[in-house]
Amino acid sequence: MTSLILVGCGKMGGAMLAGWLETSFVDEAIHVIEPNPKAVDQFADATGVTIVKTAHDISADVNPSVVILAVKPQTMDDAIIPLKRFVGPNTVFLSIAAGKTIRYFEDKLGQKAAIVRAMPNTPASVGRGVTVFVPNNNVSEETTLLCGDLLSAVGEAISIDDEALLDPVTAVSGSGPAYVFFLIEAMAAAGEKAGLPGDLAYRLAKTTVAGAGELARQSEDPASQLRINVTSPGGTTAAALEVLMDKDGIQPIVDRAIEAASRRSKELAG
Question: What whole-number distance in Å separates Cα of residue 270 and Cα of residue 261?
Fold first, then answer.
């Protein structure tokens, strides 16, 4: 039996809750701690969902399987204090807060607390996210699988053993959607400079990126082969790729971007 406490019901927390309700994955009550009524309006009549403003409003006999921490990192210190009463052998704390390490939660909740740190990304809001997560030594294999199932409600979930990898994970997938959005902007701007009306250039760029992403997702071929498949020797695509794949083209720029994001992730984690 799986019972949950969701702490924070913003965009990411709300997307996860919607996914759990849609798949009927959770077979017991879900308590949602969210002080903002507007954030939980859509779940007010959901079966099995109890909405409260603070952790103190949850009955003392509630023994959750998972406590999901989905509040902003800057509010975590205040949010986690009243949650310490849920620490026990049958409860795992699953955090999706950026920059908050396993050590941080062990310091706040105690060394015996079972903790899973996860890094999702914003496409989770449309069920197309990818979340990488890492458990501490107190989390059993069974509980790790449970957390993976919960995170899979909003996309793909991948378990790793080395927490240090979450910095480059953050740089690639956590921040990655912004890079793709910027690519859409850049393609649209270039299309407009080439003579297209602005609205048409943007529509073409956005739809092309979305379609190519879906093609890559569904295909068993690597991206390199998909690129080759649409590149005719001496054609227009080949002419563009000659520029993009030049030694001073897009790869060294992406290298620097990922390095900068990974470095900043380490700084934020302290």
Answer: 14
